[in-house]
Design goal:
It is globular, with a radius of gyration of 17 Å. The protein is built from 9 helices and 7 strands. It has 251 residues and is an alpha/beta fold.
């Protein structure tokens, strides 16, 4: 039997051991969800879950490889044991900044398998489960790079995030009449270790000056956007992409 729609349930966040994923998991945990911190780095996921709830009651770690469909199915099976799964955030991503003409076939496949295939598998597997219960919220983390072709990131990363935006629309259309919404959030450059690694710590100030608002984004605010889309009240929003890029891409 499904829980009343207004009640929090289990929220699964992939790539949640650190960075933006950790911020999202923290926000959903604060909203009352039992959170599954899913990540390819098992020990880091365990540490992140323990930081949310040392008792291990409302935050749980799970190691997975989103590029492996069976592993994604295992994530759902694990989450179901904790309660009704009501929220999925597809955040796991592989970021590379290799020059376009130097991207190898293996690196292209590696980036696409995580950034696109992983999202597609999860939307299928979790979307089917949620639609059977008549309720669910799926949020896919896209990127400014998927909208403008990318600048600091590699062309394979940008292409994969563009594919995520298209997948968001097709799954939103498929699941709309079953009580399941599917949306995307497209952050621009964030004040995060990932951006610092790509741009370089010494270049961050100059990089931020080229953003119209003059500053990097705040991961905590991105987490607020995700949390809002994950609420029952967001029932009329599906197939949408919410931008937070500091004015770098206007539409």
């Amino acid at each position: 039997m499904s829980a009343p729609q207004g009640e929090p349930g289990v929220a699964v966040v992939t790539g949640a051991a650190n960075g933006l994923g950790a911020a999202i998991a923290t926000r959903l945990h604060r909203a009352g969800h039992t959170v599954v911190v899913a990540d390819v780095d098992g020990p880091a996921a365990t540490a992140a879950a323990a930081a949310l709830d040392p008792s291990g009651v409302t935050a749980h770690a799970h190691q997975l490889d989103v590029a492996d469909r069976d592993s994604v199915q295992g994530l759902l099976d694990f989450a179901i044991e904790l309660g009704e799964v009501r929220v999925l955030v597809n955040n796991a991503a592989r970021t590379r900044s290799t020059p376009l003409m130097e991207i190898t076939a293996d690196e292209l496949a590696s980036v696409l398998s995580v950034n696109f295939h992983g999202v597609f598998y999860a939307c299928q597997i979790f979307g089917s489960y949620m639609s059977d219960r008549g309720y669910g919220r799926i949020v896919n983390m896209a990127s400014l790079a998927g909208q403008n072709g990318g600048t600091a990131t590699g062309g394979h990363y940008a292409s994969s995030k563009g594919a995520v935006l298209s997948a968001t629309k097709v799954f939103a259309r498929e699941l709309a009449r079953r009580g399941v919404t599917v949306n995307a959030v497209s952050p621009g450059p964030q004040d995060s270790p990932a951006v610092e690694q790509i741009v370089g710590a010494d270049n961050l100030a100059t990089f931020a000056e080229n953003i119209p608002v003059g500053r990097l984004g705040d991961p905590a605010f991105i987490a607020e956007m995700v949390a809002l889309l994950a609420t029952p009240g967001a029932a009329s929003v599906t197939g949408a992409c919410w931008d937070a890029n500091g004015g770098l891409y206007l539409r």
